Give the backbone structure.
Amino acid sequence: MALTGAEELSLQEEVPFGEQPRAARLDALLRLRLPIGGELDVAIEVLAQAYPRDILQVVHQLRKYREYTTSGPQPLELAVVAEHISPGARQELQDAGINYFDATGSMYFRHRTYLVVRQVIGAQHKPRRPVRLFSGAREKVVHALLEQWRRTQRGEVLSGADLSIEAQASTYTVSTTMQELEREGWVETTGAGPHLRRRLIKPEGLLDAWADDWVSRKENRSRWHVLARSNLVDTVLDKLQDYDGWALTGAAAANAVVPHLTSVDRVQVIVPPGHAEAWADQSQFKKAEKGANVVFIEREGASLMFLDTHPERPGSRFASRFVQYLDLLGGYGRDKELAEEFRRHALHMKAKT
């Protein structure tokens, strides 16, 4: 309990409670002395992997124990300990007033006015999902699902075939991805077999998890300078008009969606992997680690889905609003602050909690 500053006084395992002979059992009961003074009991249930659907039973068990011990001599808090707790499960535990700790070192511990929170992003653990959810074809499914939600603002019910077309991914990839999203509690499923349909019910939670993965990535970026005699964005668009597989992103693109969001003194461009040096040379961009006004980011896949053209700039290619938002989060200067404004006005989503 080093992070909380609390001292362990005792630990009991397999603690029976309830009416005999069919008494329930609590996995562990921990007694602590807090640094703010006083002693505290923590009722603990243990899981291997914790996703929203997995925690329903343990939350019920913990609440039953609290009801049974309401007259105990010590104040009581509830907690879940697991090898891995998914982002969706973490949020549901917090909403239920239940503390947690997992093997990555992430924890949430609250007792009255005493609060310790530690979220470890990108830590190593053994999640149940066989591959990263936000990569390759699965990331394209996530992007397509969010984009469909943004267009309708209702979270329409979708078949796997419909989403497969939108995401340009196989029906198998769609199915396995949606199963992971359902496990997280972001998607709900109705029907079965050919009548099975899914709907996005927690778009903010899905986007926040995607953002956590996005900002932890290491990408090939190169910085350049171009002489712009007028508007920088128009200059860059003019230089790139004969190429394929690129898109403007970050603040420059976001400002086209929400005008006057910010002044633009640097343009970020998604370019195909391995093409940055050649394109820059052919477009007469100068290498510039300092004073750069153009950044090439080498990407493919989901980053180039749902491109948009600005009506006042024929031939322009802007990344989707979700990619613009994600790149603002990992951007420069005030970009992170602007991301929240863009999230509200362009994505019509609540601020990140």
Remarks:
- Residues 124-130 have pLDDT under 50 and may be disordered.
- The longest strand covers residues 39-50.
